[in-house]
Amino acid sequence: MKKYRVMFETFIHPAFFFHPCYIVEANSVEEAKEKGQEAFNSHPNNVKLQREIVEVQEIKEEQ
Questions:
Q1: CA distances from 20 to 3, 5, 23, 26, 62 (A)
Q2: What is the pLDDT of residues 36-47, one digit of tens each?
């Protein structure tokens, strides 16, 4: 599995938004998006927030 950084753009109010990020392990970008959504929804207050995935980036591990 690879590690991906999934960044959201979240709107609390039309004038206020922020960019939470989650690090997930997945086999593909699509799976990373799904796992990112699951991580975001893991807190009950986040479930109803309007959001959009704006970036999925593979994390290269240094050896």
A1: 17, 10, 10, 18, 24
A2: 999 999 998 888
C-alpha 31/C-alpha 41 separation (Å) is 15
CB–CB of 49/10 below 8 Å?
A: yes
Residue-wise pLDDT for 9-38, tens only, equals 998 777 777 889 999 999 999 999 999 999
Residue at 46: amino acid letter: N
Q: Are 9 and 19 spatial neighbours (Cβ–Cβ below 8 Å)?
A: yes
pTM for the model stands at 0.83
